[in-house]
Amino acid sequence: MSGSKLRQRKKIPKNAKDSRVDEQETPPEFDIDFGKYATFLLPPILLALAVTYYLYPQIFIDAFQSYMGLSDVEMSRVVKGPAISVEITADTMKRDAVVRAFQHSWSAYERDAMGDDEYHPISHKGTNLTAAGGIGYTVVDSIDTMLLMGLHQEYSRAREWVATKMSFDRNATFNTFEVIPTFFTRCGLLSAYHLSGNDTVYLEKAVELADRMIPVFNTPSGLPLTNINLALREGAIDPNWPEFVSSAEVATLQLELRYLSVLTGNSIYWEKGEAVMRRLKSSLLPHGLASIFLNWQTGEFVLSAMRLGSRADSYYEYLLKQYIQTNHTEDFYRNMYSDAMTAVHKHLIKKSVNSNMVYTSELVPEAAPDGRTTWRLTPKQDHLVCFFGGSLLLGATTAGALVRPVSIPPRPEELSEAGQRDWKTGNDLIKTCMDTHSTSTGLAPEIAHFRIASDGMGDDAMYPSDWYIKGAHIKPGELPPYDSRYMLRPETVESLFIAYRLTGNEKYRYWAWEIFEAIELHCRVETGGYATIINVDEVPSQKEDKMETFMLSETLKYLYLIFTDASVVPLDKYVFNTEAHPLPIFDTPPDLLS
Ligand SMILES: *[C@@H]1O[C@H](CO)[C@@H](O)[C@H](O)[C@H]1NC(C)=O
Ligand SMILES: *[C@@H]1O[C@H](CO)[C@@H](O)[C@H](O)[C@H]1NC(C)=O
Ligand SMILES: *[C@@H]1O[C@H](CO)[C@@H](O)[C@H](O)[C@H]1NC(C)=O
Ligand SMILES: *[C@@H]1O[C@H](CO)[C@@H](O)[C@H](O)[C@H]1NC(C)=O
């Protein structure tokens, strides 16, 4: 950013259209007669100025600003000319290496477990989410990646499977979050519909699934129940949390429901999704953060942790993405998103004690001895939270933009103050997420803890100064803690993809390639597929017999898109759902807006 800031601050065109420019005094013309010495003096003077400017540009910028009487803030509001962008061309060698990794995974799954929900690459077996039979979770999750990668043969077999074998008629209880983002977006039916050029097979399946699922919204609050029986078309209460539903679960269906209404002209999906958002808005707590649980009967938030990780992450993500989906027309979401980001900055963004790394922490409620509730700040960042760096950048250039389109990379004056804040925090968080990759394998752990003064570790040389993996000091033969694993998660590469598209800065491609190479080296199963590794600090790695479906649908898709040219799924025409399935941005059909 600083580079572009300096570049942009050099001069203001005299006849710039922005009224804030007109209010400033115009600098007088130079009117000095250098006389006959000018010919000799001018070149060395210009050279000296150029060298000084090259070495110390800030001197000139400050001088110019004070001459113009502009403060930093005012300066940053003067938008000069149309957006500038850089050309993003494909890196075909790296892009094709990612495609081969996808084929290495898909072919193993197709060989061993075609149609099963999940894949175990070491035992070469598949499993289903419930005993009632599979719903094709891995197949539908992977289809849009095949379409994007141009894998025609794999695609046509997968499509055939969807058309002839896929069934939702399963008499068993599924978790809504697994099923809907899995089938509205994880299963990516609507993205497959769009990217296949409107192949109705996918739309019909999506409508069938939505209609089976709609009964979960029939609660007193309108918040959907977490569990569903697809065969009986009945919602079910989660036995572990009978009164609760999680914020991320109820607020992560909207992109799909809304798009389905646009495609079918049936507004019921849109209305069910939007009623949830209205309910959430009216329940919001005074500080503006969402706690991870809500009561599905009253619709109120219940006393529980506040964080950007599991059970809350996509709540924040979808506030922004709903605003983007309808092409920046719904201020309802822009305002909710802005308020949420202000609250997140106020309460959850922290800096590490040693080198000021920006990270997000969690607020956990505790009962004080006198019965009051106190909040404990826990410096714990899930790998899941690494989506948030990219999300902040995307928010800065949309909800936080003063002009449209913004430059690539955005000039500070194109962003509001909140946009500039989010842009900075987003960049800082991505750096932190990359830092959590400085492990023996180059892969990030599932959970990183950051050092705080009260952690009691002192300056014990055994502990690092900024972040650590909790419980990682184990004796030989002991199993490493859950926190140590890397399960092929996509969130860091997702942020790198967004950062690369919004800046054109090659460092993001470089980082993405490092992660890809680490996955190849430590997670690849020679007979096919990739596996979770249980300790990012152990080489050679120990693998676990599981390849999460998001490897095919998210991790490899974002890696692929980092190395394509920018015309493949451009960010001004598509919004990615939380499972990396791109949906087209549309102008809201007026009859759907209530
Ligand atoms: C998963 O479900 C499908 C569909 O019912 C079935 O054909 C397949 O055998 C099941 N797989 C396993 C491993 O049970
Ligand atoms: C669904 O499963 C339940 C319990 O396993 C059974 O009692 C019920 O008859 C089944 N319903 C249908 C329609 O298959
Ligand atoms: C798909 O349908 C949309 C309208 O929903 C239409 O605008 C678009 O042109 C169609 N695409 C193709 C490839 O037919
Ligand atoms: C979104 O709005 C912009 C500016 O109003 C317009 O140029 C663009 O075509 C719209 N995009 C879509 C996908 O409707």
From TrEMBL:
Annotated transmembrane regions: 37-56
Required co-factors: Ca(2+)
Q: Name a single GO biological process.
A: ERAD pathway
Q: Which PANTHER family match?
A: ENDOPLASMIC RETICULUM MANNOSYL-OLIGOSACCHARIDE 1,2-ALPHA-MANNOSIDASE (PTHR11742:SF55), MANNOSYL-OLIGOSACCHARIDE ALPHA-1,2-MANNOSIDASE-RELATED (PTHR11742)
What this protein is called in its record is alpha-1,2-Mannosidase
Top EC class, one word: hydrolase
Q: Where are the annotated segments for Disordered?
A: 1-25
The cysteines joined by S-S bonds are 386-433
The superkingdom listed in its UniProt entry is Eukaryota
Q: What is the lineage of its organism?
A: Eukaryota, Fungi, Dikarya, Basidiomycota, Agaricomycotina
- Pfam families named in the record: Glyco_hydro_47 (PF01532)
Q: Name one GO cellular component term.
A: membrane
